[in-house]
Structure formats: C-alpha cells, structure tokens
Design brief:
single chain, mainly alpha, two-stranded antiparallel ribbon, 6 helices, about 0% strand, elongated
Amino acid sequence: MATNGNRPQGRPARMSFTSSAPAAPANQHSGSSLLLQRHSKTAPPPISPLRPASDAGSTGLPDFGDNIDLLTFEQILEMDDDEDEREFSRSIVFGFFEQAEATFMKMDASLESKDVAQLSSLGHFLKGSSATLGLTKVKDACEKIQHYGAFKDETGTTEVLDKELCLERIKKTMVPLKQDYAEAEIILKRYYGTS
C-alpha cells in the first residue's frame, strides 16, 4: 500500500493530542477558534437520515439538522480508536453535558445576583466547549451572552451601557439556549444509544 508520510494513502489523518505537527501554526489560532472560523459561517449541507459515506470521509452519520455541525463533530469522531464503541468521543460528549448543566446553574445564579461579568465569562466558557463539538446554536447563544455580559450588543461591536437591558437580553437568550442544548443532548444521546 502506498504511503504518504506515516499513514496509508486515501485514509484521513487522525487527530491526536500528541501530534508533532500542529494542524495550524500555534501563533495563529487555538483549536476551538479555528473550528469556529471554519464552520460557524456556513451550515452543513442537508443530509438524509442515514447518509452514505462521502468522499470527504463522512462516517454515514444520522441527520443532526442544524443543531450540530457535521464536519466539526466528525473531527471528534475521528479520534475514536474503536468506531463501534466510540469511547473517546462519548467521554467528551457526556463530559460536555455535565459541564453544560453545571454552567447553566451558575448562569441562573449569576442572573439572580445580576453579575453580568460572571455571565459574560460563563457564556465565553460554554461557547468554546460547544463550538468544539459543533453545537452551533448553543455556541451562537453563548456568544451573545458573552457580549451582553460585556455591555455590548449581540454582535459585540456596539457598547450598551444599560446593565438592566443587558441582563434582560441575557435572560431572553437563556430560553432558546437551554432549548437548543436540550435538542442537541437528545440527538447525541440517541446517536450513542443512551436515550
């Protein structure tokens, strides 16, 4: 079999935490910001419930709709050693569920205490981890919360000096955030056969 470096030709490279060659130069982007740049501006193409493998290396995943960016999630799946068990990706996904639930509780408490700085920080935190998994709707809502908590508009470009307005916007954004999270959780638990 012909090889290209150390991997067989035609087989996609596996992502690794111990790779000697980073995917992007370290001074340009962090992993999650690179994923955000590559995938946040366009939605994945529509797919059938069990789409066949594509030339790009698709694993024949079910239709995740617009809740989960397929290309980003496939990158996580590529790190699994056993495609039947999916232990590595399962641990990341279920770890995220625990993290998100704890973060929602902290967000609710911060809303109650009107701690906008903490809400901005929590939004930023959850934005990064949701982006890593490709949870686009969750990521987008968290980014808005991050901006509102920093006294900015939803895009982060215009200053908003009214704390109560920022808190109201965060409170309104929390509703679809939790709904979108719940939908993604159901989809992913079904994918891993635990729902």
